[in-house]
Here is the input.
Amino acid sequence: MRIIKLCVFGLMTTSLATLAVALDLPPPIWSTQPDVNGFEKIENQRLDAAQRSIDKIVAAKGPRTIDNTLRNYDDAVWQINAALYFSALMEAVHPDAAFRDRATAMTRKASAVQTALALNRSVYQALAAVPLAQAEPATQYYMRRQLLEFRLAGVDKDDATRARLKTLNDELTEEQSAFDRNINDGEKSVEVREASELAGLPQDYLDNHKADKDGVIHITTSYPDYVPVMNFAVSGALRRRLFVAFNTRAFPQNRDVLMKMLRTRYDIASILGYQSWADYNAADKMIGSGAKIGEFIQVVDSAVRPGAEREFQMLLAEKKKTDAKATAIGLEERSYYQEQVRRSSFNFDSQSVRPYFPYERVRQGILDTAATLFHVTFRQEKGVPAWDPSVETWQVLDADKVIGRFYLDMHPRAGKFSHAEMVPVLDGVRGKRLPEAALLCNFPQPTAQDPGLMEYGDVQVFFHEFGHLMHMILGGRQPWAGISGISMEFDFVEAPSQMLEEWIQSPQVLASFARDYRSGAPIPAELVLRMNRASAFGRANWVAQQNGYSAISYDIYDTKPEGVDLDVTADRDMRKYTPFTPPEGTHMYASFGHLSGYSSAYYTYLWDKVIAEDFFGQFDSKNLLAGDTPLRYRRTVLEPGGSVSANDLVKNFLGRPQSTEALKRWVGAEFDTATR
Ligand SMILES: [Zn+2]
Here is the structure.
């Protein structure tokens, strides 16, 4: 490993390209087609290797050095992460429920190893004794953060306290797994007995939802079933039934699991000297403290409230066309009336763009756009086995050198994770290991009869997750696994993904791939402009709703669990921060998966939305791929991974800290444009 010292960060990352040596790409993760025993063998080998590295740290004689201490520590981090990533992936995607159960057990085991390392005082003391004056800045920064993380894990506490923390963390892992699994397994369905109840839904939806032999049509809570009903079904009764089914998934099981999780987390925070889990959890984030989360929620509220009210009045006027006495709009009605206003006031029917978004074209278009934007190329590895035949394996190349790999698992299956996410598969380490990641999505599956037409929102989600993917891969050439890719302050990681979402607004970008699947005609620029105006409508209320979710996530973790009533908090925050009324009988928190992984940090999405809009404003709006901004963005924001603080990444790219001005413009764009 060559260590270079350069004081200017941009120079250092720029010169990496010339330093990079071609690494051998290991076989794809499913090439051995492991059964569950094979999977556990791979996992146990990783955990054993981690233990050997930890043993070497403790056994090292003589003065502490980067080589005899930090290098072994980081090897252990890589192995444990690899084990955790793989078991989490299997929990989310493996078709066999028994395999998923064993993967859950493996996640528990690997998390216990991770927790034990985080509480290993010998390792902490060894790391703290490594002299760093001569080390490169990324190494110094990594060490500072690791030592902070050790203290946040309680490593400086006495033996009994550390043992208690370990027990609590093991319990937390178990509670999180249970929460997530209950949601994945919690799919519900509603029955439709009169086909007329599906009025308003597109023809391909009707074709895919035929009545069974008893004359019953089953509509599930999976996204491809759920979203079109909420947007298009004329029947308010159907929308309400499905909304209630969707928002009672994993209820009541997850009410109890979540309450246990609140108690466990509160106990951990208290032991470590924090007032609340929210405060403790913010200590290693960009935001810094729980109180700042509360402040941020208020700042966002005042930024979007006037726009949210203005949009609400338009929705209400729309509703009054068929219900003259209406004074309120339920949460379950928001998407439907929003769609109606888009048609009536913005002359846009979101069905009109679906023919331009067949899945295969969109996938190729997003790959091509990302290749141009990030100055990379993609190469598919054909005939590679994966956990499901539909999964594709791709390599990422930079100047003809392979720099990473990703897997696309893009369509729904029974038992599969039901949302959309990027999951890391392997951490990259400069000169040593290549990064790998997977996208898990639930987009319509193309078939011989059906090209898998995507909604506008689906395409946006695809861009979003691809933003995470590129961050993971391009940030994968740092000197250490612990600062590779998205291993950084947790409340920055949604900024690059939300920034890439905005690419869907560009007529130039869309014209390059969005073609009518029947005629091959490219999407007209005029339609894209109308779509942009129409899609801007509803943003203020979208932000308001997200802010409501942030408030739920913050409020339940900002206090003693004894004082929390989940139903009261969820209902109150939605009423307080949005103009909509939550319907009776819903318990959305039970399937609000982020309350497990993100805990009090759901604010992250809006925090990063503020940054993402500010970033996006730096690109040339007429030609997003023009000039030196794309490459400068790759170099200063994505490639550094977690080697500098995210507050510095933002300043390095913008030349100043982020501001909410771009967000304010973004939420009001439909009214701006209308008056032009
Ligand atoms: Zn994301």
Remarks:
- DSSP finds 27 helices and seven strands in the chain.
- Residues 464, 468, 494, 497 surround zinc ion (CB under 6 Å).
